[in-house]
Specification:
- A hairpin with an 8-residue loop joins β1 (17-23) and β2 (32-42).
- The protein contains 5 helices and 5 strands.
- It has 227 residues and is of the alpha+beta class.
């Protein structure tokens, strides 16, 4: 009954969480990240699955990777909402699959054998056209939208990278606010930058208290650190 609980990559329980580990290894010149899905603990063992791993370097000069609610960022980077792209793909498949039969069934004077042969040839041509369309669509999107942004990201200074990350989260929050789905992104945004030289640096970090009402906190905090 519970065998699927122990099956690799078969995550069915409610409440799975995402975990991203990013930064530099001791011998890394460029950063990397790994994304995991974590479901829970079974017999004192953490149940998790690695989803993505990216290493910046010669083959990947830079990247923009959204997590969790990713449709807004993907739509901005790739030029089309992922849901709309899936609908377009489904609709085009249906057109090229069903249109030849509908068309030839309305042609008078054709025998059933002739219709069957014509439908078969038309579907082959349709598949070739659809394949060419998708190839050129992907190439246009990559060259016109994705590559310019990725190239720009690769040369941005650290403060502008932080501002870009915050802006993307704000865009997602704005979109969620005016959609019927749950508003799962919003509120104050924490922003940090990880670099080889400086390590982990907070650019913006919310407090559970108002700093202006607790002027003694920075003094006490740094006194403990440099004790």
């Amino acid at each position: 009954m519970s065998g699927w609980l122990f099956t690799k990559d078969n995550f069915r329980l409610q409440g799975t969480s995402g975990l991203v580990i990013a930064g530099f290894g001791e011998n890394d010149i460029y950063p990397r990240f790994s994304e995991f899905t974590v479901e829970g603990v079974i017999q004192n063992k953490l149940r998790f699955c690695q989803r993505r791993h990216t290493q910046v370097g010669v083959d990947c000069i830079s990247t923009v990777v959204p997590f969790a609610q990713s449709e807004v960022v993907r739509g901005l980077v790739e030029g089309i909402d992922p849901g709309m792209e899936r609908l377009l793909d489904k609709f085009l498949d249906e057109i090229f699959t069903n249109y030849p039969s509908v068309l030839l069934n309305n042609v008078k004077g054709l025998t059933q054998a002739a219709k069957t042969a014509a439908v078969k040839k038309t579907k082959v041509v349709g598949e070739q056209i659809l394949k060419k369309f998708r190839k050129e669509f992907q190439e246009f999107r990559q060259e016109t939208l994705v590559n310019p942004m990725i190239s720009t990201v690769s040369v941005l200074p650290k403060d502008e990278l932080a501002a870009m990350a915050e802006a993307l989260v704000n865009l997602t929050s704005f979109k969620r606010r005016f959609s019927p789905s749950a508003e799962t992104v919003g509120g104050p945004i924490d922003v940090a930058v990880i670099s080889k030289g400086d390590g982990f640096i907070w650019v913006k970090h919310k407090h559970y208290f108002k700093p202006e009402l607790n002027p003694h906190f920075p003094t006490n905090y740094f006194r403990e650190i440099f004790k």
